[in-house]
Amino acid sequence: MAQMNASGLGINRRFKIRPAASKAARTWDTENIADTLSLLTRRERDVMQCVLDGQTNKQIALQLKISPRTVEVYRASVMRKMRAPNLIGLIRIGFASGLMREGIGM
Q1: Exposed (0-12), middle (13-18) or buried (19+): which is 64, by Cβ within 10 Å?
Q2: Is the entire prediction scored with pTM above 0.70?
Q3: Bridge partners (DSSP) listed for residue 4
Q4: CATH number for the domain including 103?
Q5: Which are the contacts of 4, defined by CB distance < 8 A and separation ≥ 6?
Q6: How many domains does the chain fold into?
Q7: Is 37 helix (H, G, I), strand (E, B) or coil?
């Protein structure tokens, strides 16, 4: 059943939530992940591992003895380089790469 909005366009009450990226774009193979991981600096890998372990930015900052803002910068860089759209995407990459195992971390 459609409803009319102010501009006269029909709005379908039932809608389907589509994934932001196609399944092929979300599929990671081990070689691709290894190549991408090699682009990360040592500190970015440290931050990524802490994120995968479920630590907050503040906890990561205390552990690595850097400021929380620096953690934010490293974390953003990791997300960009790993092409992870969000934390869940990074976790999926972590599982696919073997950096994260079921029951470890979050």
Answers
A1: middle
A2: no
A3: 10
A4: 1.10.10.10
A5: 10, 11
A6: 1
A7: helix
